[in-house]
Every structure is written in C-alpha cells, then in structure tokens.
Amino acid sequence: MLIYIYMMAITAEAMSGALAAGRRNMDIFGVAVVAFLTALGGGTVRDILLGNYPVNWTQHPLYIYLVLGGGLVTIIIARVMRHLHQLFLVLDAIGLVAFTVIGCNVALGLDYEPIVVLMSGITTGIFGGILRDLMCNRMPQVLRHELYASVSLVVAILYLFMLDLGVGENVTLLAAFSLGLLLRMAAIRWHLSLPVFRYSQEQWD
Amino acid sequence: MLIYIYMMAITAEAMSGALAAGRRNMDIFGVAVVAFLTALGGGTVRDILLGNYPVNWTQHPLYIYLVLGGGLVTIIIARVMRHLHQLFLVLDAIGLVAFTVIGCNVALGLDYEPIVVLMSGITTGIFGGILRDLMCNRMPQVLRHELYASVSLVVAILYLFMLDLGVGENVTLLAAFSLGLLLRMAAIRWHLSLPVFRYSQEQWD
Amino acid sequence: MLIYIYMMAITAEAMSGALAAGRRNMDIFGVAVVAFLTALGGGTVRDILLGNYPVNWTQHPLYIYLVLGGGLVTIIIARVMRHLHQLFLVLDAIGLVAFTVIGCNVALGLDYEPIVVLMSGITTGIFGGILRDLMCNRMPQVLRHELYASVSLVVAILYLFMLDLGVGENVTLLAAFSLGLLLRMAAIRWHLSLPVFRYSQEQWD
C-alpha cells in the first residue's frame, strides 16, 4: 500500500520539479535532472547519510522511469496542470507524509537513535525540494515558507510515538496521513507559518 | 590509453573551473577549490551514489596534484588562454566523452542496472560543471545550454549498445570519442540545443 | 580535552549559522537546518568522502542537541550577541583549528595518503561554511575572504609535520592552536587575504 502511495508521490514531485525547471527556461535535459532530484533527491541524501547502500532508486529502475517520465510529460501538459492546482497541493502533501514515514522506517531498520530517525524522516521529506531550489539558484523555499518542514517533523514524531506505544502499523499510518494532510491543508488555507527570525545586523563573521 | 586521456581531461577541466572562479574574483584558495570540484567532482558524486569506496581520487594523489596544479597555473597563464579558446573547447569535449565512458565502466563493474549505468556515465560527465556553477552562485549552465549533457547521454547509450553487441573495447572507444566529438563540435558550431521548456505561471507549490 | 573544545566549537558555529539564516529571514525551522549544516556539515561531507560510516553525529545525539539548541537560542539572544562580536571571532577561530585537527585525525585513522589527510582537515574546517552559504544562496565567502581556509591549510600542514617528527600529541595540539589563532587574529586585525584572481573575459565554455 505505502509503496503505491510512494510511486504516486514521486511522480507528483517530479512534475512539480519540472514546472520549477520550466520557470527557469531549462532545456528538456535540465527538466529531467530537476524532476529526478526533486522526487528522489531526498531519499538519496538520506541513504548516503545513513550509509544505506545500495541507494534505493538504483535497485528500482521503475522509480527512475516514473520520475523521468513524469518530468517530461509535464512539458506537454503544463497548460492543463495549472487547472489541477488543488489536486497537486494534495498530492504533494500526501508525498510529504509518505516520504517522512519511509525515511523513519529506513533509519529504524538500521537501528539509529530516535533523534536520527526523526532527522532521517524529515531529510527524506524535504531535501528533494532543497536540491530543486539549489539547481534553480534560489533560496530553499522550505526554509521560510508556510508550514511544510514542520508538518514533516510533527508526522515523524507522531509516527515514532505510536510505534513506541505498540499501536499497529496500519492505524499508525492512517493517523500519520490524517494528521499530516490536515495540518498541511490548514497551513495552505490559512497561510499558517512558523515565526520568522529577522536579523539585519551587518555580517561580521 | 584512456587513463592518459583522463589525466589530460581533468587538467583541462580544472583550468576551465579556475577561469570560472576568476570571473567571480575568488582568491587563490577559492580557485583551487573550484578547479578541484570541476575536475573531480563528477567522479566523486558518482562514487558516493554508487557506494564505490574508496572514492577514486583519494587513491590517486597524482590526480589531485594535476588538478590543483592546473588550477593554479591558470592564474598565471590566463592571458594566454583566451587565445587557446578553440583548443579548450576540444579538450573539454574529449573530457566529456572520457568522463562518460569511465562513469559507465565503474557502474558496469558493480553490476548496476543498465539505466543506472547510463546515469553513472552522465553524472560523471556533467556533475563537475554543476558543482562549479553552484560554487559560483549561478544556475548550472549544463541544464539549459547548447547540447552538452545530451552528448554525454548519446555517448553512453552508444557505448553500452556496442559493448552489448560484443564489439571490442578499442573499436567501441573509438566510436564513442568520434561520435561525441562530432556532436559536440557540431553543437558549438551551429548553436544546436535541446528544446527549452518555458513556464511562466506563478509558483503555487 | 579536544572533545570539549569541539563541543564548544560546534555550538558557536551553529550560532553563527543561525545569524546567517536570520539575515535571510528564515523561519525557525530554517534556522535549525542552517545551524546544523554550518556546525556539522563539514564533518558530514568528510565522513561521506572518506567512507567513514556511520557518520559521526549519528552516533552522538548530544552534538545534535547542542547544535539545534545553539541555533534556536540564538533567535532569542541575537540582540545581545552583537556585543559579543569579538568573542565569537575567537570561538570561530578555535573551531576552525579544532575541526581541522579532528578532520586530519579521522583520515589518518583510515590510512589515507598525506595529501588526502590534509584535504580531510580542510574539508572539515571549511565545508560547513560553504553549505551555510549555499543554503543562503550566496557565493561561499570562504572562497574569497580574509585568510580563513588558508589558516586551516597551514594548521593541517603543521599538525602532520609535527606528528611525523614524533612530537607528542599535546605539544602538537598546543602548537596547532597557537599558530592557527595567531594567524586568524592577524588576518582579521590587518585584513590579510590571499591574492585574488580576477578574470573578466566573457565566458566561452
């Protein structure tokens, strides 16, 4: 089940990455690169950080085809996609939760400390977007936007907490997706965001 | 043979990286860092992605000296280099093919899937340039320029295809270098490029 | 002893990273990410390059808490910190030397070549700052600033040289910190910097 959600999520993330590349007038190769990094970059950074070799996608050519295909199809259907705005926000939120839960599971399977498990979940959830923004030469949006990374954090904490309590996998997943989607949709609807740290002092370091 | 071409290629790439650093008024340390990343960064990213430890250059101090030396010499001979424009375009094209073929070979030796072998070749070919551009705080040129990354892709496909057909290593290499150089030179001469994806819709994700 | 200096250093680096994030108006999550990358990013890059798994901080939750705590506390005490300008320059210089020495030790323990040991020291010393600047979408300051990276290089060379001569660990450390602090303070006081490479030729590669 989680695997199908994951495949849908990486395809949606790849399409969102392709649109970001299109905003920078990249060529179709650049679109493919950014789509790939947006969708699979978070999991790649996680695998490298945790020493979880071989890196996940290298063992699943299907993921690679989904992501490259999603990116390239976006070029053709970009006109239509702007009418699917709402749908993509939901798919993106589902993807954020799925990535977070999978990232936690990978670190749990390697017996890392709880704090590292949390960081593994968040890294999987948000690093694809960070790599996308680096490639587009802009500041990572996830570091100053509406609740996004913090949704990943809350989901990861809930997930670990319920597993620790011995709640079954299915109930835990249902709770994680429900809370994550609810929070993310509320953040978008009411423009909820974390407090911002403004510091205007001239740089001295 | 390929090893000598490789050493010439990393030196040329280091010199091109040093010029990019000079355009940003970096100090000589910055020049060395950018020269290193431009020349050896692609192979480093490949080794880390594939779990191919120890990373190649850590076992070959000669490569490190070539690259740092090439970068620093560039500071002295920069004036002369502008007259060698044509030569450097050819060296860069040779380097692109050499990096691609070597990247494919590394993944083949580790029994990765064909699609991962292709990606390993392209990553080795283009990621040095991506890291150079990230250090210079500009959008990676390889994602929207004249045919460059796509030359790497075509070379990698030809190379795998001929090896699969059982053609000898030497003939295959000759074909890869011929096609790659021809394509790249044609791209430069006639400003060939891939179609660009333009998407101006305000961002919503 | 070195371990306590290290913990003080990562906390100070995290605080400096947090200020950089504040200059970009990041939210508190972004502050935590940039603080973490500034303080522990250099060691992470080193561990990944050298294949030194598990990555250091994944085994030391205390480091993670110090760094995240330091980053978040900075938000509260930012006003006060501007009066501690001088103190932070000293802490940063101590951190640079500590990171360099520790980076050398890690590579020595894995039997890498001397040139790789030097690079491991410098990478540990400067890559946190490079990652911080990438996240803030600006050119890495360390590549064109006052003597900073070069202090790391000089310290690493001295350290290896004295170990090679058979000088005791304590004397060697004392010498490394003395020389490093002296050089760095002199660089700040008299605005010493490396020669800059200026190259204005239009890009042709």
Automatic annotation (TrEMBL), chains A, B, C:
Tell me where in this chain the Glycine transporter domain is found.
Answer: 5-78, 90-162
Listed A to Z, the keywords are:
Cell membrane, Membrane, Transmembrane, Transmembrane helix
The UniProt entry, under Pfam families, shows: Gly_transporter
Q: Which GO terms describe its cellular component?
A: plasma membrane
List where in the cell it is found.
Cell membrane
**Topology versus the membrane:** Multi-pass membrane protein
From the record, give the transmembrane residue ranges: 28-50, 62-80, 87-108, 114-135, 147-167, 173-192
Family (UniProt) = Belongs to the UPF0126 family.
Q: What PANTHER family does the record tag this protein with?
A: INNER MEMBRANE PROTEIN, UPF0126 INNER MEMBRANE PROTEIN YADS-RELATED
Q: Which named protein is this? A: Uncharacterized membrane protein YeiH
